[in-house]
Prior knowledge:
The protein is an alpha/beta fold. Helices cover 31% and strands 19% of the residues. It starts with a strand and ends in a 7-residue tail after the last strand.
Amino acid sequence: MRVLVTGGAGFVGSHVVDELIAGGHDVVVVDDLDPAAHDGMPDGTSDAAHYVWGDVRDPDVLASALDGVEAVCHQAAKVGLGVDFGDVIEYVGRNDLGTASLLGALHDRRFAGRIVLASSMVVYGEGRYRCVEHGLVRPGPRRILDLDAGRYEPPCPICGRPLAGEAVPEDQWLDPRNVYATTKLAQEGLCAAYAREHPGCTVTALRYHNVYGPRMPRDTPYAGVASLFRSAYERGEAPRVYEDGGQLRDFVHVADVAHANVLALTNDEPASGAINVCTGSPRTIFDMALALRPPGGPAPIVTGGYRLGDVRHVFASATRARAVLGFTSAIGFEDGMRAFASAPLRATVGPRPLSLG
């Protein structure tokens, strides 16, 4: 099968390409090597894939990449919280206009195959919470007054009692709380609208939880927390843990995430709708900081600070992924973090292609 992988030179995309190639598929990659994430040509590209170096928003780039494509794996996106709201135009342009441009080109070709979208847990906002008196409740945004006072747990919006976190299923209400999260939800909506108007097309929105592993971007405002902590240890510094370190997340290895993508692309039966890609075993941010600590390395520092775009707890149910995709994560937290502590992060192996300037 001929598969287009947008963002296929990036962190997750490059691992998807590797697994597709290993499975005997013909892979075309479109990637513009966004300077915010790439200093030049990254390692991890495949000699067996065909690379089109350019922006997914460029019609000429898409025209040269889509011939004969039977399935699309859309990974290209600007990720992370970024620097501040000033990043909004870049996020919307790369994520939402990029997705619209891709779908417009697919529409022109009457594409009716599978589309697998890299979505994210961030579309949920805060996770799922239960009050002992009022049952399942939806907490509002955390207040700066509470955060400044070190009150990080969202209270019951009705009675103010403490809440218990639960695993988030795919039918949880959606409440994106930062620019990146909002663009990911828009991507899901655009792809779903395309599928409704193109009979035979199936869209699988894979909601990644906290992905880590080899080729992860280094210490930038767009890198994940695992990379930030790893980079701090490499510099001989203690990683700085926001809030009290008790935030719960689901850390899933990039090899597992790539496998979920390939299942969605190649299973006999297509999978429609949203699917959490996770381990089903949440850990705290502080747990992760400790797991990455090298022998003799400095202990993590709990700063008590916070980022307004963050949420307190969000971790997922893996039930639908097992039932619909046949996906179960193969790499556990301890083994995965142990390997990641010394795994290579993204490296630059040459200059940017001439076509990218």
